[in-house]
Q: What sequence folds into this?
């Protein structure tokens, strides 16, 4: 069972999951594709295999405001549960600057409310060798909480904006990105609960600083 940050959608007449968008500089990443191909060994680690990123604003007021909003989300969730049962949520640091870490597991266990029909193909850009797709079976799927979109925002010479799906390998430390994140509370042990920021998408906004640094080094 889980609790999700949601809003009422008048068009559908139902609650829809509400993603928060946070922009920052990528400081750490563990992204696909996965190249190791020992399927028998990897199957044992499916519950723990994940992709993740860390970003910082290096003092940016916009980033700090987003960070405050995440703290407000935690407070809103904490009011739902008995006092003291929702585990504290803390960000991380990049040097002296506030940073934010998020990720998504590659697989979810099949349950009564999540069967194999809900599995989403990884796609060639994310899993070019089909290593992860071969780990999907009747026990574990790549479901909605596991799927992450990787998009590049391109500004043409004429000033038009285009969006293109890209391989996660094109997103690297030093890039400016926008993360799409959902917030979910899961049951933990001993009648406690834990809020998890789940990565839903990465939009590559600018890699000029990183590529310029590489050119300068060369």
A:
């Amino acid at each position: 069972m889980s609790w999700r940050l949601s809003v009422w959608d008048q068009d559908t007449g139902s609650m829809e999951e509400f993603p928060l968008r946070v922009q920052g500089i990528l400081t750490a990443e563990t992204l696909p594709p996965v190249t190791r191909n020992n399927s028998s060994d990897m199957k044992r680690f499916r519950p723990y295999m994940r992709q993740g990123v860390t970003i910082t604003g290096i003092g940016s007021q916009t980033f700090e405001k987003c960070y405050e909003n995440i703290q407000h989300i935690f407070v809103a969730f904490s009011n739902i549960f008995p006092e003291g049962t929702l585990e504290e949520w803390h960000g991380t640091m990049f040097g002296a600057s506030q940073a934010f870490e998020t990720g998504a597991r590659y697989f979810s266990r099949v349950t009564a409310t999540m069967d194999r029909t809900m599995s989403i193909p990884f796609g060639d850009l994310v899993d070019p060798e089909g290593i992860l797709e071969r780990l999907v079976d009747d026990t574990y799927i790549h479901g909605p909480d596991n799927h992450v979109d990787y998009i590049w925002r391109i500004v043409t010479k004429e000033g038009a904006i285009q969006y293109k799906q890209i391989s996660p390998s094109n997103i690297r430390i030093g890039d400016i990105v926008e993360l799409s994140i959902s917030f979910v509370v899961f049951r933990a042990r001993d009648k406690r609960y834990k809020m998890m920021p789940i990565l839903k998408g990465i939009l590559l906004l600018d890699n000029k600083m990183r590529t310029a640094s590489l050119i300068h080094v060369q």
User: Anything to note?
Assistant: The longest helix spans residues 61-78. The two ends are 52 Å apart (CA to CA). The mean pLDDT is 89. Residues 116 and 141 are 6 Å apart (CA to CA).
